[in-house]
Amino acid sequence: MTVLYPIAASPEAALNAPSGRAAREADARNLTGGEVEFVRELTGPGFTTREAALEAYAGRVDVEKGQQVAPEDRYCEVMEVIAAAKAGMAGGGQAEPIYAEGRRWPKPSRPLKTAWRLSVAYWRPLTAAEAEANLDQARKARRDKDAGQLDPKAVQALARQPLRPVRPQQPLDTGLFETRPPEAPHIVMPDE
Q: Under 8 Å CB-to-CB from 29, ≥6 apart: which residues?
């Protein structure tokens, strides 16, 4: 049996009142009448132990011994995450790297505080703006065998979207008029 993921706008809605359930993206699109994306988000409070989290979410999560969830309802999972530090406390905010004894980061002075939270996987309906942002780039869409069958709205959306790079630009290791000679690749020479 396959998992039937809920269709909802948030993880709380997926747990309490989903608008439907679907195993595949095409099924979810048919039920919502629009574009959807598969997301996995954390919800609920953090628990200090795994056992406490499993007890709180009994009936939603599989337990090794005892209660089992039906195969189509296995869209929830309890996972350990790093607990957010409070602002202004030691260990919170952006850390500056420390270079000591040949290492970038020293060993932590105290272990990180973790919490057990519920992770919910579900189909989230997209708004029109989000659906346009998820379109393929025009250079990719025109190579598709079904490119001739695009409706006018899809063509207009392709024309309006900004260009995105195919892959991230790599930094230059030499200047525009510099080269490395083959007999000494460790030397950078001017090339004019």
A: 35, 36
Please check whether residues 11 and 49 belong to one and the same domain: yes
Answer yes or no: do 27 and 79 share one domain.
yes
Q: Work out the pLDDT band at 127, boundaries 50, 70, 90.
A: confident
- Torsions phi, psi for 20 (to 5 deg): 170, 180
The confidence score (pLDDT) of residue 163 equals: 72
3-class SS at 4? coil
Task: Collapse the DSSP code of 81 into the 3-class scheme (helix H, G, I; strand E, B; otherwise coil) and give the result.
Answer: strand
Least confident window among 20-29, 75-84, 124-133, 183-192:
124-133
For residue range 135-145, list pLDDT tens digits in order: 666 667 767 77
- Whether residue 170 is contained in a domain is answered as no
Q: Are residues 15 and 102 in the same domain?
A: yes
Query: 185 lies in a domain?
Result: no
Q: Rounded to an integer, what distance in angstroms lies between the CA atom of residue 132 and that of residue 126? A: 9
Predicted confidence at residue 39, as pLDDT, reads 92
Burial class (CB in 10 A: 0-12, 13-18, 19+), 163: exposed
**Domain that residue 143 falls in:** 127-164
How many domains does the chain divide into?
2
Three-state SS for 28? helix
